[in-house]
């Protein structure tokens, strides 16, 4: 178990590429007492790691441990590309199963169903009736045979991969909600809930479609307990509920999402009652876990709350019957285990490597075996297998074999005041082997903009630091993780105060003597790419150069492109609250103000930000006689999940910076 956290017309039938079964891969493992990270060299002189070290794909992402704790599944870096892989953790040398990710497709999630099968969620941006829509489907893969089973691929709707429930008794039937039409005037536009056998693909109806119900939810026993209604014309959402999985659904709550009202939806049902757990605002204005009487909405008790801390996500037992812990906004101790046994395991692991951040990535059904990542902000980390019953802690792999246990450039959290007095937090990474004053400087705003950077390993920041640059990643207003008030402070400020927060981070670093004011560049991806371009417009004399990676040049065009999603009116409204005038803060409309050289990098297979955003910006910059370079990467997606594409990305950045803002 991993620990986490439709349209009005219709869709052309999805056509996916052939799935390739690769040859077997055996993984070496060796027992270690604890994670062993090497200290950075004391002497200032050092030999920088090659670019290829940072371009190397992570050993695994989205890793999940089978319920019995004997096998793992995830997205593994194999031969320079990500592959879906299932393999034994240790001992058993049976053939691993390796499956290629279909072209033009992203993996959304991977999850075990029993010990012999996984399900994989896939999505792609595909042409539908002259538009491009996000299409989602799921597949099952058998661990023993490698057989791939398409699940509900005969559905005629846009989305057919909403997993509501997975059994924990060894069964292979799961609950999936799927649309069967793209036309809103047809009953099948609204999702049907199916019981689907992941091994055979056979299906049967569990809940028929109901007008305006676009989302369904089930309890840990696999009973459909609620539906969420939605009308995009009014952005009105309703919660419909039934007691103990029986009887008819009835409306118990409503909210106008476009007016920023929230619908409180249970994530857990208390067995034998109509009570449930929700994440809602506590008395202190912070998000907490509260048990409520679902039909009335009245609170029963506070399950977890802490002063000054928001609950951001929850960690459930694999059977869904028990809340194990919560992840919070606390930077020093984000994980709070509520289960005493898991808290004890966490303590044991932290004592094994006290200088590391210890994250339990996935646990077995009986909570005795787990995958654990030991990492530091200056190292991508080591993946271990922990058997709590025996106390064995076995190293599976370094997340980056070339870097191994080396400690790279040190990062720390910093705070500074924006020009209007608002406190901004950011991650500052100082280059190893260099003096700590008057450095060439990179400010790197995050994507989203609804997101935030944390004090964790970041391969872009570490690569830039390895080349001699100090790197600041500011969590500007509007970022998540700092409470509702801070997030709402970004409304109306996209291109204005949000951008000023980024530039004010530069002014702070100059005042502190960290940054050389004559050697500052701005770099970012996605929304950060927009901020990089807009920074050269709003503060043309501050930046010596700028790099936009898969960035947005034309906000009006971008915010009207929601891939045919059902809630496009709601999403458009959310963006419109961010700025009063899209055109006025779009870089493509303000090229005359740009003085700094600009590098545009964009993957042609990006399904998040259209490649044309960078292509049109390049054409406009060239026509205006501005200094601009464009690196179009033919096979790259939004996240550069191919090693060759990461190499192209980093090499292009390195070459451009050496020309326009050399570190030496």
Automatic annotation (TrEMBL):
Superkingdom of this entry's organism?
A: Bacteria
* Alphabetized GO MF terms: serine-type endopeptidase activity
Signal peptide boundaries: 1-33
Gene3D superfamilies recorded for this chain? alpha/beta hydrolase (3.40.50.1820)
Q: Identify the residues that the record assigns to the Peptidase S9 prolyl oligopeptidase catalytic domain, covering every copy.
A: 459-660
Print the keywords alphabetically: Hydrolase, Signal
**UniProt cross-references to Pfam families, sorted A to Z:** Peptidase_S9
Task: Name a biological process GO annotation.
Answer: proteolysis
Descriptive protein name: Putative peptidase
- Which organism is this entry from? Sphingopyxis fribergensis
